[in-house]
Amino acid sequence: MLKSPFQSIFKTLVIGSAFLALSSSAQTLTDNETKELSQLTNTALQSDVSYKILESLTTEVGHRLMGSEGDKKSIVWAQAKMRALGFDKVWTEEVTGTFWQRGEAQAKIIAPYPHKVVVIALGGSIATSKQGLTAQVAHFETLADLKAVPDNSLHGKIAFVSYQMERHINGKGYGPAVGTRVGGAVVAAKKGASALIMRSVGTDNNRIAHTGIMRYEAGVNKIPAAAISNPDADLLVNQLKRNKPVSFYLKLTAHTDPKVTAISANVIGEITGSEFPNEIVSIGAHLDSWDVGTGALDDGMGVAMMLASAHHIAQLPKRPKRTIRVILFAAEEVGLLGAKKYMELHKDNMANHIIGAEWDFGVGKIYKMTSGVSKAALPAIDSLAKYLAPLGVKLSNENNASAQSDMSLMSAAGMPSMNFSPDGSKYFDYHHTENDTLDKVNPEDLKQATAVYTTFAYFAAQSGINFRK
Amino acid sequence: MLKSPFQSIFKTLVIGSAFLALSSSAQTLTDNETKELSQLTNTALQSDVSYKILESLTTEVGHRLMGSEGDKKSIVWAQAKMRALGFDKVWTEEVTGTFWQRGEAQAKIIAPYPHKVVVIALGGSIATSKQGLTAQVAHFETLADLKAVPDNSLHGKIAFVSYQMERHINGKGYGPAVGTRVGGAVVAAKKGASALIMRSVGTDNNRIAHTGIMRYEAGVNKIPAAAISNPDADLLVNQLKRNKPVSFYLKLTAHTDPKVTAISANVIGEITGSEFPNEIVSIGAHLDSWDVGTGALDDGMGVAMMLASAHHIAQLPKRPKRTIRVILFAAEEVGLLGAKKYMELHKDNMANHIIGAEWDFGVGKIYKMTSGVSKAALPAIDSLAKYLAPLGVKLSNENNASAQSDMSLMSAAGMPSMNFSPDGSKYFDYHHTENDTLDKVNPEDLKQATAVYTTFAYFAAQSGINFRK
Questions:
Q1: CB pair distance less than 8 Å for A235 and B437
Q2: ipTM of the assembly?
């Protein structure tokens, strides 16, 4: 069903089609626009605005778990930054949820050889009893191995899954590893275990453990769930190899207060389109973070990139034709709550979301772009790729991309999408750890990634292409 | 003064000189010995014995701070290992000292922007008061800057030195950085500060702080001293740049019980020489470690290398001519207490120590050897260098080496010495941290380093060279 906002798209299509009819490498910007874009890309590439924003967020706010003081501060901070950076409109949309608090975590191997263990509660885990629990360790190399044992066969045991995540440039090792974190406690509880411990979902070898969300299931006993650092997992495996009973102590004081409603907000800002203000090019990141580290990579970098990209465009003499909307999502880490709220509030306006791209994979240079657009728009994507090629970005020959993270919900609702892939080889060294801090960000990589989003946003807003399938 | 043990050296010199007279690349081993050495080197190079020893130490004992349970366990462990590995004699020599206990450490930035800080007490530090202390931070980029302010000018302040250690292959960045750790608290106390905090002496960017020994001075007020991780130091510097007062909270519960005498021991084992049992080729490492991590690099790797080297030589059909003595020193970290005790007990026998080499710089392949021997023995060093060249070890053209660490006291007392230098680029990423764990050891590098010490020990014991100046 066509709605009034689409009239402007049709206008655009007329212009766009005229070019597209010419060749597959059709010009989608005028020569003057191309010149302006080229200067804009260079401005972004040389600017430390994104780094300064990130330095401000990580220094002045710190971590920002849904419902925490940092979360509240970040919402004030983000609105102020948007205003200072020249956004035309700034507003928030409330997001509510539960407030999980990490508390303290302690773990040690008691026998056969006592060792202190570096441990972290998984996000959402319940506490152990106040005095902690001590039990023998039942070791499984994979979640599948744990699933394979009979129900109720692990009474009085702590289930330990030692699967090691693999390192890959595109982060594809995360998928096979994260299942234990999200669903392992439910599986272990069905087997009768009193707790789940797991090797951290991470590619580093630091004595730093990785948190991240876990889930309970209605009707299944809730048990405490925690991750231990990779070196500690190695040590535990080495002790288990000795074929003596390994006794483990775990204490968590994590809890969720059911009486407390955590109140957060998506923070949204716009550079209003000069010709088609209702047509929205959305770029996004999530403002929340885990409550360890300062959320510099996950997703402070994305926040900084999106704010800086809009700022660079706002500095041009004239606003691009379409509106550029920066969406800083709340509560991504605890279950895409901000994204779900955005969908709820904007579902009737999804057709106006011309194209979108999020960034939530923060470290390393962008080396690849993948589109998820209509076939008819592929020549325009080729054109965009030519603007991005000097930045070292190659166009994937696939056209099946969703936007990352929160915006994947918008992609699923039909929003044309771009996915810009960074070299993520090191991302999971730091992901969801205390080590997610500003020093992990390479300022030059941040400039490049900011330049990519700046270029994309201008191109999508100014060219008038219809990317919709 | 010549003493009886030297008679055997003179015998040796006769043989040695015969070869040395021939050329500067004089043969110092017979063809059969060379063949045996070559096989021995290959055995060591292919053997995982050293890795297995290290795995055992780090898994079954763990960290081994002077006076701790781990220290006591390690002494039992080391003697048992020596016996199992085929040593001819095994004994201990008691070493006493004080027992410093780390307790707990907490730190946070209170204002202007609250952050939790990763902190570790420096070894020997006193505690803060039970409730901790909160004070404004006075920032100094170097210890020299702190020294430069007037005495008693920092009352009510915490002195913070933010100097960043440099990364170098030979670890030369340690010297300029470690002064703050050892002596910074005395300087800060003279200035009136209530505590010293410093950027960790380390080259990593992990949220893990580096401990290490510090000293108080008689007549100077004792103040608590702690190191914060590099990323936390960055954050603190960034807050200080904003020119608002930065308020910092520090709590340490570290203490030394003056009534408790810590009892430890040097663990010594020998492969007894078949012709000159009183002539000692000593190879060593320190058995103690800091009470964080498992002391895998510092100095478990050295312990494993020395035990494995002696073991490989003990597997030969015949003992080499001289005795090979493995000295595992106690209490190196807290001030070379084991080495000092060894000197005290063996000072009258120092002349029998023909040559020695320690290893206390544990990570990476050995790439260089430097001698500290008589000029007359340099051709023999050339000869040794030829045996080690296939392992990638180059001979330095200097001849001024001390042995590393504990054995430097023996070098200073006239013992001819070798210093084998590894690629230490990454050593100070892990040094004195929780991150000093087995996974940081590259098994292939450990084989190479073990092969170097095995080759050296056999060569020095079998060739009969007089290395003494």
A1: yes
A2: 0.92
